[in-house]
Amino acid sequence: MLQGILLVLVACALLAGNTTVNAALPDTLQRIKPSVVVVGTFQRTRSPAFMFLGTGFVVGDGSLIATNAHVKLTQPLNTEQLETLVVSVPSKGGAGEVREVTRLAIDERHDLALLKLKSGPGLPALGFSTTEVREGQAVAFTGFPIGNVLGLYPTTHSGVISAVAPTGVPRPNANRLDGPLIRQLADSFPIYQLDAIAYPGSSGSPLFEPETGQVIGIINSGLVRSAREAGLSNPTGITYAIPVVHLLNLMNEQRGVTR
């Protein structure tokens, strides 16, 4: 009997905690969504003219966009066909104003990239949290999962930090080691493992605190998954995020960039 009462009390406490987070998140999203953009390329003679690549979010002075480097940002543009790198803030479920950007900096080790608006007014930027991230901490992320199929609707997922773990995981069998994996193990760094699923297109989404909207990481479902799950024939649906400190370091390396 006593055990049953304790279970009920624990369940009520958990529900109360979730209610607090859920109550804060809708208001937080009103501040987050105007800063989350679609990253893609634009070529007027192509059909469709806009090609979706991934998600990004506005940082710094409002002219900078943070995203993942692996969303084809290291590939050259077809300048002969006037292909340009762009971002767009969706409007009512479709691509909004297309803004041309340039590649400002790329950090391949942490799979991060900074883009810069070529002209025009800045966009609302997100702030950062540099407090310690703890396992069990509530988080949310907003992006464009499978954006080229489901439409450019900003979509939010929520969950918790399930683990803080290294990017590279040693293999029990040395035969499974190859050159790239050995380099990843030697150059490993802590990342956040989440209990929420991110789909293709969510790469580059801001991972933020539901109550404050402050960014604590950048969703990464490509580089980190290949490093941690290289030994699996069927990769899991686990989502990972790069700690925001690496983005801050990249921003600080750029002269004239403000946090």
Strand order of the largest sheet: 1-2-3-6-5-4
Total DSSP E strands = 12
How far apart are the first and last residues' alpha carbons, in Å? Answer: 55 Å
Tell me the β content. Answer: 25-35%
Which fold name fills CATH's third level, the topology of the largest domain? Thrombin, subunit H
Unreliable stretches covering 5 or more consecutive residues: 1-20, 230-235
Estimated helix fraction? 10-25%
User: How would you describe the shape?
Assistant: globular
Domain unit count: 2
In CATH, the architecture of the largest domain is: Beta Barrel
The CATH homologous superfamily of the largest domain corresponds to Trypsin-like serine proteases
Q: Main β-sheet, in a few words?
A: 6 strands, antiparallel, barrel
- Provide the succession of SSEs: HEEEEEEEHEHEEEHEH
CATH class of the largest domain: Mainly Beta
Keywords: Hydrolase, Protease, Signal
GO molecular function, one term: peptidase activity
Organism: Uliginosibacterium silvisoli
Protein name: Serine protease
